[in-house]
Amino acid sequence: MSNHNLSRDEAATRSALITTHSYDVILDVRDAADPAVAGYPSTSTITFSAEPGSATFLDFISGSVKSVVLNGQALDVDAVVDRDRVILENLAADNQVTVAGTALYSRSGEGMHRFVDPADGQCYLYTQYEPADSRRVFANFEQPDLKAEFTFHVIAPAGWEVASNGVEAARTPLVDDPKAAQWDFETTKRMSTYITTVLAGPYFKATDHWGATLDGDTRLEVPLALYCRASLADAFDADELFRLTKNGLEFFNALFDYPYPWGKYDQAFVPEYNLGAMENPGLVTFTEKYVYASRATDAQYQGRANTLMHEMAHMWFGDLVTMNWWDDLWLKESFADYMGTLGVDRATDWESAWVNFASKRKAWAYLQDQLPTTHPIVADIPDLEAAKQNFDGITYAKGASVLKQLVAYVGFDAFIAGSRQYFRDHAYGNTSLKDLLEALSASSGRDLSGWTRQWLQTSGISTISAGIVEDDGTLGAVTLQQDAIDPITGHQELRPHRMRLGLYDPNADGALVRTESIEIDVDGPSTLVAELNGKPRPALLLVNDDDLSYAKIRLDPGSELTVRSSLDKIQDPMARALCWTALWDSARDGVTPAARYVAAVEQFAPAETGIGVLLNVLGNASTAIERFVPAKTRDGVRKDFLAVAAAQLKAAPAGSDQQLAWARTLADVSRQGETELSLLRSILDGSVVIDGLAVDAELRWSLWQALAAHGQASQAELDRELEADKTASGREGHALASAARPDPSVKAAAWDSAVLGTGLSNEILSATIAGFATAPAAMLEPYVEPYFDSLEKVWAERSIEIAGRIVRGLFPAAQDLGDGMEPARHPVVLRTDEWLAEHGYAPRALRRIIIEQRSHLLRALTAQAAKG
Fold it and tell me: What angle do CA 126, 130, 135 make, to 5 degrees?
């Protein structure tokens, strides 16, 4: 068995034996541009204390280990290297170990990722470690509670930009190699291994500065830098990014009352990134998809700002104070998710941050919380594979939603006061749930033990609906009914909710406006709302108005009738977003037919002014058509929807975000529908010009992908398009379009390159898988058995990032419910059940992905069976 998967028990044993002090790391990447060079010299010198006479191990996933020197004594490499571990025995009270070896460049986005820009042939490097991939770059004790100071030295081509967590201290040309230089960086403050980082390559760099005067006239000076690939420099809006960065630093320094602790603040936008961003202190890394070379909507810019604020909040939550182990991952991610939205709301010009949070982030949490693999916010993480899987909608969005409710419960001022004390008490250290609760309980004067058990230590989601008794237009008894089952324990888990009820009626202009708001505590299965007795029946009674609590809502029949006839007349953007969500949840849950949701989108989406909400509902409509609408009616529903999308593309204001949203939707849905392909071809060749529509690279590839999926784009045409767009995104677009062509030989080649080959980088792999999956279920039927047969081999032989993309992306999800068939008796559901029954020994992380994919399929089949 591989040693990649460090267990929690092993980590606890190691941290009980040793205390780490410092690392001195030398990385020599001067030959990175040579594709024949697979790795680079890596030397790591570590000082640490230990229980005398004890033994422990270092982590190092490498190409080879050249030498190990412990306390001045060279050890026998063959004797002490056990696969990905270096065994250290007979330790002294104070120790120094130096491990030299060859680390390997990555194409998976894990460790030291190497990317060659197709636009100009330039080589770029960056590192990404979370949760445990710094051991792919240098030998270390890879767990979050063994913090240390780090000093990095990087040897690279002399003309490159090189950066790390610390400020550059020196740059020295090499005497024996005039084409190379050594960068030495200042020693960091204590931090965890997974947030160390190195960046190297011919990056474009922009610089700026931010400063603030603290209490006592102390001046805080923070140098700023931004990086992106040279070929993206013309699209890099550095001035706007610096503006947001300064706003964020101003806001969080004042909010947390703890000066930014990491010296400089660099932000790098890097290619083929597996995440949205990563909070490395002093050098935050982002996906370069946030560098908009093609037209982007305001919602995309706001999403980027949210990510920027999220990562900045991590400088305190996660970096300054770090969880002991991944069980408490929420201590950083839930807080950063909440603070990211708060930062956009209070430190930028956007006014829709919490509306987009309700519409998008919470929808992610609701989806995740209904899976059989859901978990409490405070999770049980027995090993690193489980940690990798728990960067999910529960840890991020549900945690942030619950924190939003906690703020309402204890008060914002008390919440911030407790956070400030938490930073002061635990700076540069590690914590658990208990430490945070002590700080918040002290600041608020509230006992949070009950709240913790009900919200942080249970799983599942409540569904709340209003039961209404009325008499001739007057409300009688109104009760809020709560239904909640913990999917893990099977127990009823009725949580307390502080929420508002909004009463909406038409005004003189016919708009639906809030006429009254009632705040109420919901507790138990049924809560009487006495304040409503005797009031006129409103046109819309909106449960959880203003989105204070975390719960699904069901509209009562009268309110649902109002929403389905007049959703576009609801003036308040948050109320409108909540009604959209209620309609979507009803379709996802099979309560109402999915075609009714699509019809609502056709009727009301053209009037939706919130671009973030519009993008969400159009994406939901696409999912509903292809997954939730029964096969026998799907073509008709899709045809009608495509006609609306084409009409709205032409009717939307020229150059507007709404126009772009409809264009993208038209291309996306046309991958499966043929009725508007002639329009797509005409837009591509310029014979049809839509006033204001920028037919740029991103949109062009979407249009080509739709044509390719129906055999209306030849490989030669796709290759010519790639020749005109020699960019990383162009290469991904080409890979998807090429694999989407409905030819059995094309699908076989895509399958082989994704599953059997190892030559695809992470992003090209995902594009190839997406293209392969763009096909009718009948064309993919021959791959059902090979999929299940390949699972163990893929998981054993590929990195967890790459294996996860393959296992998740190639699951045979495009299935339909036959006449008279029970969803649970569908052949693919049964085959999945068979595999799970026969592979109880399979790694938990692999089983979790399969279980989740089965759940998604079963939900789709159940929705297809919905009546009404």
Answer: 75
Q: CB-based contacts of 307: which residues, under 8 Å, 6+ apart? A: 276, 277, 286, 290, 340
Residue 112 in tokens: 């030291």
Tokens of 345: 């709301």
- C-alpha 252: how far from chain center: 22
- 544, 551 in Cβ contact below 8 A? yes
Contacts of 53 (CB under 8 A, 6+ apart): 90, 91
Residue 846 neighbours by CB under 8 Å, 6+ apart: 791, 792, 795, 803, 807
Which residue in the block uniquely carries the two structure tokens 């304040």? 531
CA distance 702 to 295: 13
Q: Which two tokens stand for residue 657?
A: 């975000």
- Examine the pLDDT at 181 and tell me if it is beyond 80: yes
For residue 770, give the 3-state DSSP assignment. Answer: helix
CA angle centred on 396, ends 382 and 322, rounded to 5°: 60
Tokens of 714: 């030849």
311, 493, 626, 676: the catalytic one is 311
DSSP notation for 99-155: EEEEEEEESSSSEEEEEE-TTT--EEEEEE-TTT-GGGTS-B--STT--BEEEEEEE
pLDDT given at position 492: 83
Q: Report pLDDT digits (tens) over 326-379.
A: 999 999 999 999 999 999 999 999 999 999 999 999 999 999 999 999 999 999
Q: How far apart are CA 575 and CA 608, in angstroms?
A: 12
- For the chain, report the end-to-end CA distance as a whole number of angstroms: 52
Count of alpha carbons within 13 angstroms of residue 701, beta-carbon side: 23
Confidence (pLDDT) at 526:
95
* Digit-coded pLDDT (tens) for 61-116: 999 999 999 999 999 999 999 999 999 999 999 999 999 999 999 999 999 999 99
Q: How far is residue 718 CA from its own chain's centroid?
A: 30
Helices 611-623, 573-588: inter-axial angle, 10-degree rounding: 10
Euclidean distance between CA atoms 403 and 87, whole angstroms? 42
Residues 237-264: what's their mean pLDDT? 97
C-alpha 406/C-alpha 643 separation (Å) is 45
pLDDT in tens, 697-744: 999 999 999 999 999 999 999 999 999 999 999 999 999 999 999 999
Evaluate the omega torsion of the peptide bond into residue 131 and state whether it is cis, within 30 degrees of 0: yes
Q: Which residues pair with residue 205 across a beta bridge?
A: 227
| Structural element, H or E, at residue 477 | strand 474-483
Per DSSP, the residues of 555-575 read: --HHHHHHHHHHGGGB--HHH
Contacts of 716 (CB under 8 A, 6+ apart): none
Decide: 552 and 401 in contact? Cβ < 8 Å: no
Q: What average pLDDT is seen over the chain?
A: 96
Per-residue pLDDT tens over the stretch 388-418: 988 999 999 999 999 998 998 899 999 999 9
User: How crowded is residue 632: how many other Cβ atoms within 10 Å of its Cβ?
Assistant: 11
CA distances from 195 to 147, 249, 278, 321, 791 (A): 10, 20, 8, 12, 31
Q: Are 162 and 123 in contact (CB under 8 A)?
A: no
**Exposed/middle/buried for residue 220 (C-beta within 10 Å: 0-12, 13-18, 19+):** middle
- Give SS3 for 347: helix
The Cα–Cα gap between 207 and 330 comes to 33
Tokens 């290619």, residue? 271
User: Which 3 state secondary structure label does DSSP give 509?
Assistant: coil
CA distance 305 to 316: 18
- Residue 438 appears among annotated catalytic residues: no
